[in-house]
Fold this protein.
Amino acid sequence: MTVRVRSRLLPGTPWWVVLVAVPLPLTALAAVVVLGPASVVDADRLTPATVVPVLVLQGAFCALLVWRARTLPQERVVWGRLALASVVFSAAVVASGVLSLADATRDVAPLPVTWAPVLTFPLVHAGLVRWNRSSGQLADPNDILNGVSAVLAAVALLNIAVTRAGSPLATAPWWELQPLLAQVATGFVLLGTVLSVLGLAAMRHDPRPWLVAAAVGVGLAGDAATVLGGGTPAGWVAVADPAAAALLGLAAALRPARSAPRAADPAASTIGAFVVIAASTVALFIERGPTVAACCAALAIIGAGVRLLMNVRELALLAVTRREALTDELTRAANRRAVLRRVRELADEQVPMALALLDLDKFKEVNDGLGHSAGDQLLRLVAARLQPLLRSGDLLGRLGGDEFAVVAPLEVGARPDEAAAALGRRLSLQLAEPFSVGGMSVHVAASIGVAHRAGGAPLPEDGGSPVELLLQQADTAMYAAKRSGTGVAVYDSTRHAETSRHLVLVEELRTALTTGQLVLHHQPQVDVGTGWVVGVEALVRWQHPVRGLLGPMEFLPLAEVHGLMGALTDEVLRQAVAQAAAWRATGRDLRVSVNLSASNLLDTDLPDRLADLLRGSGVPPEQLVLEVTESVLLGDPERSLAVVGRLADLGVTVSIDDFGTGYSSLSYLRDLPVAELKLDRSFTADLLTDPRTEAIVASTIALAHRLGLRIVAEGVEHAATLAHLARLGCDESQGYLHSPPLPAGQVDAWLDREGTAQQLLRV
Ligand code: C2E
Ligand code: MG
Ligand code: MG
């Protein structure tokens, strides 16, 4: 049977650490036993025979601490400082040993060893305070001022106790007595510190702070027994310091339990400073004269007082930071966070309120025309102009850019819609006068949308927050005001719900794009001469989880306005090319046409993405047709023409969709690398009934052929229309006469049903 030992110490711990940590207590005890009781700590008997083993132990102990500091980054400061303290202590032992060699200095030989714990106190204290505490804004975790003040206060009280108790120590010279008392005092403070570490719930399950507490406790007991024994360490007291070092060494060797650092607590340092001041005041009250005790108490009061002042200053700083976090830097009005917080507060307190959103109409022109500093100046002036309008409890904020908000609690009894409209009017009026910006007089109109919420208004049905709902409603009203040019609009659920629904739809579309809700239907394109199916047009639909199948007109305009067209077209192209590849695999060489929108033609990365897509699919570029309408070229003709040119360079066919409905068709025909025209269905519909339409169609077909282009008639619904198109020489026909747009599976079934005459088979 294998016995598995679950240990914090052994796995991954170097052998020498185990070698030092495990027998350290035994070695320490052995040293005491072999060298005689009290030999290690009794400075009077410092000889090379006692100093050398102590130094060897110290060296091993120090190496252990340094190793721990290097292997535990989150506690580097803790163990690093303890290691440094141990180095100082070793140096003191060496100094005492050297001094004891010569007769002249033998009397002062114990001094370095007695003062060493006092001198190393700041290091040990600062190390322990850092344990498991991350630096917070308040209460410096290295708070040595509080620690030193506490030691001074304790030294003052101990001095009083030694004198009052008539201890033989009272007659010892101060340089011998004070370090002894200071050792006890530092022991007290360190014990308090490590116990406060244990007070953190996260550390309670970690044996290491318990071991450190035991180490400090044992050391303190030894020091206290020495003081009580009149200054001579005797009996078991001699074992105290090596035992403490052994416990500390063991703590260093153990691996830490899992715990997250906690921010330092400002309350702890404040309470600590108060306790020190109270204790020192008592000491001062008892010791009126200029004694060591009185001096220590006075120094302790000064130290703790300074610490308190630092806390107060930090608190003031924190208050400023808090205010800054809620203020808009440019206008000094509230910022977005503060506005949302105010709305949330009022909603929580069930206070009726109005929220006005205000968007400057011509801000971009000022910014572009007069420069950014003029734009900034205008924003500051607007904020300053609106500020006097606020009543008590109102809040003006800048949400970002040129958008401001006013949160106004409404008076009880007032009609919310009227009060909201009045607020909108007041704001609008206030901006009527021109502003003087950059030496010019500038008129700034604003679009203001106001939404209101009654005190006990129910929470939104969809579980959203009342803040979001109110903000969305004010936003909807603001856009309504902008569109209609009225300046002010109050949100009205009957009129504006549609717009809100649009916003919801946009969010849903965003999700739809990544969750496969967009599907393609394909409408066959038939060769007029042969009757063969030569291609399909891929038309997007949205399989909405609640509203069913949505046509492109229900969401494409939203996608265009809200910047989703790039992602949408990528998805359509991906599906269309994959479908073309699937048809090729079954022997059907069907051309696939995809529609592009205005923003696609401004996307200069589109040609590269499409090239990658085609390369990966194995579909030859000429199998893909990209349809663009003339109007999409109007936005930024230069850039659009460049993108179209690069698309044509890939080898794909560019087609002009809805031909005849746009403007300047002929100039585009000259400039664009076009290979196909799609005659708009309005011409097809009137072909048989309107001679003028017939003339246009006939000459368009002739023109296309003169230019070497293929012409496809759209919206062909009747056999007579198709026959006439054939007479006029039209190349291809697409319309309900052949088939409506169908899912790919149904296109296959349709092709099978219509027989081989309907399809172009690969030979
Ligand atoms: P379009 O490119 O002109 O597409 C032809 C439209 O005419 C399709 O409407 C089709 O269903 C319809 N149609 C076909 N045959 C007939 C017919 O015989 N009679 C009548 N009255 N209509 C017919 P759909 O699918 O609703 O698409 C509308 C428009 O949406 C398309 O017009 C196109 O501009 C746009 N669109 C569709 N899919 C996409 C897409 O993936 N991306 C982009 N950017 N636009 C698309
Ligand atoms: Mg089209
Ligand atoms: Mg069309």
Remarks:
- The CA atoms of residues 573 and 610 lie 8 Å apart.
